[in-house]
Amino acid sequence: xxxxxxxxxxxxxxxxxxxxxxxxxxxxxxxxxxxxxxxxxxxxxxxxxxxxxxxxxxxxxxxxxxxxxxxxxxxxxxxxxxxxxxxxxxxxxxxxxxxxxxxxxxxxxxxxxxxxxxxxxxxxxxxxxxxxxxxxxxxxxxxxxxxxxxxxxxxxxxxxxxxxxxxxxxxxxxxxxxxxxxxxxxxxxxxxxxxxxxxxxxxxxxxxxxxxxxxxxxxxxxxxxxxxxxxxxxxxxxxxxxxxxxxxxxxxxxxxxxxxxxxxxxxxxxxxxxxxxxxxxxxxxxxxxxxxxxxxxxxxxxxxxxxxxxxxxxxxxxxxxxxxxxxxxxxxxxxxxxxxxxxxxxxxxxxxxxxxxxxxxxxxxxxxxxxxxxxxxxxxxxxxxxxxxxxxxxxxxxxxxxxxxxxxxxxxxxxxxxxxxxxxxxxxxxxxxxxxxxxxxxxxxxxxxxxxxxxxxxxxxxxxxxxxxxxxxxxxxxxxxxxxxxxxxxxxxxxxxxxxxxxxxxxxxxxxxxxxxxxxxxxxxxxxxxxxxxxxxxxxxxxxxxxxxxxxxxxxxxxxxxxxxxx
RNA sequence: CGGGGUGUGGCGCAGCUUGGUAGCGCGCCUGCUUUGGGAGCAGGAAGCCGGAGGUUCAAAUCCUCUCACCCCGACCA
Length: 567
Description:
Strand content: 25-35%
Distance between the termini: 22 Å
Number of domains: 3
Largest sheet: 9 strands, mixed
Shape: globular
CATH class of the largest domain: Alpha Beta
CATH superfamily of the largest domain: Bira Bifunctional Protein, Domain 2
Structural class: alpha+beta
Mean pLDDT: 91
CATH topology of the largest domain: BirA Bifunctional Protein, domain 2
């Protein structure tokens, strides 16, 4: 393919509205252009990358026994009413009405549509297992779209839904998908890790996320240095709390702490380490307040809080609510004297231990407040995020916390949707049973962004071979010289015959421009053809990632590249 | 939604404090020269200064309102 015929609008400067590496480079390399916040056009090079990713996904999904369908993006509200998600999905659901004022949404996910399809068409256990997948545009009105393709309001997703006769069959399917996902992410050339995850709004029992390790990731991953344990921070369990017994025989003492409203500030002001404090936070659960106590050096994990309280919605109380509950200003809240609400605490808060707490009074805190003596806690749970000092919940080993980008997610759904929508089949005994379902997502467009996050340098992108927009870029230095251009054409044709996709840099540009753009685009190999070398029958072969350049004879170029190509 | 920031030729920015002819670099078009890591010279095209209202003889600049986008937090592939 000729460069001069392709729309590859590269940019010299970083665009002002991009912050992350992948976002900047996708704009600079002419892969995407923004249309609105979280909405992008994919340009020819972007589409080529995407197609290659899709091809790998299709192959692996098909190998794992799934079959491709294409479900509608436009979906009627009725189906969503059946599962209750028309209400529950909230503002993230892109809703619209047709000319008859009937409600529709643009699908953020397809459990409803696929379950509807299967309940209508599948009657017998003999038709199971069934696993349907599609690669399609999803719509989510994200609270905050960001980082280009990383979190868009419209994005391309591969989603698959499996239907099995019973739990053990469903688990077999789940494992097959889990392993197919490993193949997929290995083939697209990403460094990733599968971690235990929360199942979120989609619901269901067990779930794993596939995380690409990268600084710019939006998730924290907890993983053990010694054993195989790895989990999303949202999910990461904590075993027995570290028991600290700081008994104090002194009675509770009110101290002056003018304007010290944060643990950070208090710790400095009183010269006491943060773990000696107890934070008192208020959450509104089903319109009722709950006080949550947690050590000053810890953070509340809202996912765990929701699970332990067995609710799906909760919110941090606003200033007004806090003042009503504590009868004191925000920033000085404490558990002493609170009435009419449940007080719960993280398990690291230990009965009999003395802490510094808010006094529910402006500019005052209490020292020597002892749990069980000066105030009581109704219930203890695992409520906090893991911190680097915590032991691995499985083996007690050392853990590390890294950033990751979620590119895939597999869920065991069970019968949640089949029950809600009355999707049943007849088993061998002729008895009606609900399908046991699983669902499996991959952020296809996000993989493109994640790949760049992992594969770039100061000059630009270096694509993993398997998903690069082209395999080789052929660069004639003096495109006007007939001999040079002929050699370039000849090499291009020969490579194409060998199955390479080749970008021929035929633009009338200076050498520097071609080199810099080539490095920016990140095609894995560059064949540089210059008059000087050509007179000796040689060309230059450059590996974009390593920067290594070798001189090879024209006859050997193709052979060399075949040797370098990953199968 | 809360907090912070930015909107000026295609891209990156200056000008705004102290109102008075809209500017710079890159890119783009023409020509000549150059040609192995973002060329030089000459000529040229291109901007309702995000939008609306106001103040003023006069607004990119001051005031009010609005919209869009980016970043930090709660959601997720």
